[in-house]
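lol ok so funny story. i was supposed to be doing the assay writeup but got distracted and ended up predicting the structure for this chain instead. priorities right. anyway since i did it might as well share w the group, maybe its usefull for someone
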Amino acid sequence: MGGEEGHLYYLTEFGALRKKNSKSVLEFTQRFNKLYNKNLVEVKPSQPAAKVTFVGAFDLDFTLLLRERRSIDLMKMQDDALEIESNMMASGKLKAKIETGNKENRKFKEQGGSSGSGKSSEDEIDKMARVIRELSNKISKMELDK
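and the output, tada:
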């Protein structure tokens, strides 16, 4: 492909870029920059236009998070996208841990705690508070007897 056809092809490909779920943000950014840089200066989209194309390549949730960052230029937007992806992955892992913890907690409650007594945690806390008060009273009496 040469001449004007080649420029139109790269410009069209650039405008149609979408991030595939199977690819990381880094892989997509590299593909994006490769196509962006293949455009000649005369037909290369401006930075604001490139930012619009970049942010529009993601799914709606990711796009909203990226737009909230209000990145000042394309490079900063790409850095922000990498950070958002990292945060989302960490959030997904944290969410999985919380869900696992909730499941284990439900099992513990259904089994009535480790003692099998069936008491709720509030009952156990009340019982512990009573024991502490009794011990405190006994210590006070011992001090008075001395």
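The chain has a mean pLDDT of 77. The CA atoms of residues 3 and 35 lie 16 Å apart.
back to the writeup now i swear
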